[in-house]
Amino acid sequence: MQYAQIIDGTVVLSVFDDPSTRETYADETWVECPDDPIILIGATYDGTDFTDPVQTEPVSYAPFYIKVVDGIVVEVVTGSPETQHLDFVDPQNPTIPEWCGVFEEIKVGATYDRATREFENPPMLPISPTAFKRRFTLTERTTIALARSKRTSTDPQELQLALALDIFFEDLDDPRLLEMDLTDQTVTDGLAFLTSVGIITAERAVEIGTP
After folding, report:
1. Is the pLDDT of residue 89 over 50?
2. Which residues, in sequence order, are CB contacts of 1 under 8 Å at separation 6+?
3. Is residue 113 a contact partner of residue 101, using CB atoms and an 8 Å limit?
4. In angstroms, rounded to a whole number, what is the distance separating the alpha carbons of residues 74 and 89?
5. 194: burial class by Cβ within 10 Å (0-12, 13-18, 19+)?
């Protein structure tokens, strides 16, 4: 069953799960949609019938999908709504669900202002690559160095890990790089990867990535 969220006679959000547990504001109404056709965001609702907007361009999926909790972006992923099981909504609409698709690069830590309907990325947090690498403990750095040394291994898993670590750390090893941004998505993804392979814990990832 499809449900549409209506604000001022316009569909601003379309979901296929029961919206009764979602936070709803005074100017918002949830309406159960007919089984066919699928109601699109931007459709108008006159209290009885829906009218889908005229599509002048092919509909495309957003390149980024973000998780918003209490007005703060806590996670950024890529992929289609089908594979991520996310709600798809234009960020200019007044309601941002827990997950939404966006067409601009939004960073973890960004805030969403409901009044202005805008995101604000966190300020850049500059740090030198050397200072960043020194945030890892000796044990963590040793584990990383050992894993990277196996780039000629015949074991597919060891080789894949070594190559992935090289991709992340080679930029940091470049002497021409004098400054990096802790809020950059590459850093966030790199720390998430190190956590996923057990080199660091989730708690350490937060410590390393926090100024």
Report:
1. no
2. 16, 32, 33, 35
3. no
4. 17
5. buried
